[in-house]
Amino acid sequence: MSFWADMQYCPKCGTPFATGGFEQTPHPTCAACGFVFWRNPAVAAGCIVEREGALLLARRGIEPYAGSWYVPSGFVDYDEDPADAAVRELREETGLIVRVTGLYDHRVWRDDPRKSGIMFFYRAAIVAGDAAPDDDVSALGWFLPDALPEPIIFAAHRAVITRWGRENVNTKGQDTKDTGD
Question: What's the chain look like in SS3?
């Protein structure tokens, strides 16, 4: 359960929360000022980047789930377009500059101890740069569908990587150049 799920007092005026109020919501509601605490999902975005039939994955260098593999991605900032966030996060984590070529998939996640949310995965083409782990990434690797690393964390990432693997199963060979750790 996240910090926000355990909120007991209004962040605006400090009055203990109740429920009801606006539209008889089951969400925490302040009887004093009317503030309704909507527990909205977080939004995250990442890039599906391929090279010679291999998918770029990153290994987490931080908790939660340090050492696990995932699609390079991160949270969308307030007022940021998810596609722009995916490009920004990829650059921060890998040093690659990419161009989004389309929406690949979207998934709901509920298995992150920090929060639940909606994840957008975009296809992206490399424009410039050399892949090197940075920010909260300990390693990068290029993986073919029949040689994916373990563990892959987050159900949304596993589902999208599995889909990508099924769609690209005919690829042969492997380039798993780890660029870190």
Answer: CCCHHHCCECCCCCCEEEEECHHHEEEEEECCCCCECCCCCEEEEEEEEEECCEEEEEEECCCCCCCCEECCEEECCCCCCHHHHHHHHHHHHHCCEEEEEEEEEEEEECCCCCCCEEEEEEEEEEEECCCCCCCCEEEEEEECHHHCCCCECCHHHHHHHHHHHHHCCCCCCCCCCCCCC
